[in-house]
Amino acid sequence: MPVIIGAVDWALGVLRGGFFAVAAVMAVVCGVDWLVRTRKMNPFGPAARFMRAYVHPLIAPVERRVVRAGGLPSSAPWWALVSVVLAGIVLISLLEFLRGQLSSAHNAVGSGPSAVYRLLVTWTFQLLQFALIVRVVLSWVRSRPGTWYYRWSWRLTEWFLGPLRRVVPMLGMIDVTPIVAWILLAVLQGLLLRLA
User: Fold this and answer.
1) What is the C-alpha to C-alpha distance for residues 157 and 178, in angstroms, rounded to an integer?
2) Most exposed residue of 49, 140, 143, 152, measured as fewest CB within 10 angstroms of its CB?
3) pLDDT in tens, 75-134
């Protein structure tokens, strides 16, 4: 296990440096592309020809989404930069989360059955609470019920939200069942952790 944690630490170090370098290069490229698109730079010069030949095809999917959303095509380079930065943040955060969970598992295995039990209870309730958050957020935005993330969160939460809805009244148009479920999950987790 320490070898795996060391490998994840190494990957995190490489990714942090790599994403910083990619984001810096992308910022320069997007800045030049924006200057070309807004005609603040000669649109017929070598830089503009390079951008049209090599950069515009890479940014085209982002540009289509920006235009569909009502934005200006000239803002596509900045949205592409935001997408790259967000992807880097999400990937690094996921690896840090994985490293933390691996470290917790390693420590729990070394500490005995009681620590393993506590870890499994904590992981189970964190997964249920995460699924509950996903389900609440998806209820605020337009999402198709057939998507995998909707089905996943529904399957993990409906078994306790369904019976609660029959008991907990709505407050006007607000369904407070997820809040009650969150509190009950926290109380149940605390009770199960005290058994260890």
Assistant:
1) 9
2) 140
3) 888 988 998 899 999 889 888 888 888 888 888 888 888 888 999 999 999 999 999 998
Cβ(62)–Cβ(76) below 8 Å: yes
Cβ atoms within 10 Å, residue 115:
16
Q: What is the pTM of this model?
A: 0.68
Q: What pairs with residue 174 in β-bridges?
A: 171
CB atoms within 10 A of CB 66: 20
Alpha carbon 139 to chain centroid distance?
17
DSSP H helical segments within 38-75, as ranges?
46-50, 56-68
Domain ranges of the chain: 1-99, 112-196
Contact predicate 74/34, CB 8 Å:
yes
DSSP string, 23-39: HHHHHHHHHHHHHHHTT
Q: How far apart (Å, rounded) are the C-alpha atoms in residues 158 and 97?
A: 26
